[in-house]
Amino acid sequence: MMRLATLLNPEFLIPDITGCGKVEAIDQLLEKITAHDPSIDTDEVMKKILEREMIEDTSYGHCFAFPHARTDAVSKMYLAMGVSRTGVENCRDGTPLEVVCLLLTPSNISRLYLQTLSALANFARSRENIDKLKKANTPYEMLDVIWQSGVMVNRKITVADLMRHNPVIISESQSLRQAANDLFRHRLSALPVIDDAGKLIGQISDSDLLTAALPDYKSLASTPDYDVPEEPFEELLKKADKIEISQIFQDDHEIVLPTDNIVPVSALMIKNDLRRMYVVDEDNRPIGVLHRKDIVNMILRG
Could you tell me the domains of the chain? Predict the structure, then answer.
């Protein structure tokens, strides 16, 4: 392991970004990098960065944005960071965007790229780190803040690097309607189910909700149209507030620890055709969800 600060060059740190937008901030950071290496094709790099932003806005939250790109326009990894004292725009969670981290790597670098993004995310989760960065007046003071944070870059990719933190959970005593609302509101296909002690006991999926409405779905799947009953969904709606999750959830979930190596975990997901695994702490409390599509998105798409 190594400290995140060792990957940062003071020449690529800006303590007071000017302008009022993320693209302007990216442009200023890119200028710092290309001043160090004029051979970099600025237009090509900016094109790749904006393409990545079109796929997914990297202003994830906690006042941080992580614009990044894997491109052969650079021959090594570059990491630049800028701070806005007033905020250049808003993040997805509504917080002002105050810190922009630009990460560029060649296409053939994946592990260090992912590990650095993960370390930056860990640094961003502390409001204290952000406040200290905003008080820094020089690049060297910024670097000292990052060093003093003690955030490390791991050598291996773990579940914690790719999982979704702060999962939406539901209690076994809550209603079917609440589950349906949470699935819709957060655009999810399943929720981890906990008992009264907060421990993971299973999951409830959109399939489970449909099964509650159509318990004899196997026979209905081959029933002629003129014999299909028209009332099952309406009847379920009438009872949705009275049916508890405990009556319909499944306990065939798979768990994983945040420190587990992502390679064997990915292999297990392929072998058992798992769309997701629930990440738990030592007390079996859910702390995250690892989605198969996120592994594909981060490792293969970047």
Answer: 2-155 (3.40.930.10), 164-301 (3.10.580.10)
